[in-house]
Task: structure prediction
Amino acid sequence: MKRNLDIKSEDNFMKRFKYYKSNKPEPSLDKVVRIQYNVPIEVNNISNIIEDDSRTKLLGLRNFTDWKTYTFNKHSGLFLIANPFTSLGQRLWIRKCLEDYPRKPNKTNIDIEKHIEDWWREIHKNDELDRKLQKKLRWTTLGYHHNWDTKVYCEKNRNVFPLELAELCDVVSQYLGYIHFKAQAAIVNYYHMGSTLSAHTDHSEVNLEAPLLSFSFGQSAIFLIGGQEKSYEPSAILLNSGDILVMSKEARLCYHAVPKILQASNQPWNNYEELIQIADNDVKTKYINDETFINEINRNADNKEWSQFSSYVEKSRINVNVRQVLMENQDRLDN
Result:
């Protein structure tokens, strides 16, 4: 009898997953933490007015004074920064995830079937959209490439981490007080309506003390997070476009999942009042060439040029999760 009770208790996470995954009937959102819609459950606003970082505007972020940051009573070490991105900033990062990050030498799930040098260009070849190939892309890996079979990183399976993404992560981690965080590996997940991500923990990195930074763009998602065992009842959190979720300390090794993608209630990447071009204001950055990057972000104010990317995110969600692989005193895995 005790064994049956243990099995039942281990199903708590899966029960919640199945409930929110369901289409018939549709799940109720009454117990979902919805920051944007003023339905916070056991959430604390810890936003502080601190000295701003001059890099925020360049990276498509609002000033720190406009950021709204929350912690969760049930999940120590979990932070949610509610969409600190400008509309132009969202367009920049969505475009990066579609046009740049699935390009070689980065790796994608499609590599198992065929070699594609430039996925975005390939799906728009000959001015015709290859919808079948478009939907095949589920993930791309950057920096240290995650090995899905062994769950182990290795030095031979590594490329240069995108400098602009490292800069973005540096701003966010500095804001939260993780001053030594270094972005070294990322997985970009591409979800379509009906996609899910099953319960798992992220434990492949050598450094499990460093936080995991997760950026959401496009359609909304229900995110489940429980404890370090599946017997814990998970909390459900609604993640919207532009939200940044940070898992640190106790939350770093907790089971989490995405049981459902939801149609977003608005399109913050199309807030036309915020589509203002960025001027060169002598921003000092750690990693990127300012002038080149300013030109890159400004081109997204052109709605005609942006239209192909808009068509994608109107039906899909993009999630970028970034982690530090090495210990602070390491520069390689083999030393």
The longest strand covers residues 185-192. The first helix runs from residue 2 to 10. The chain has a mean pLDDT of 89.
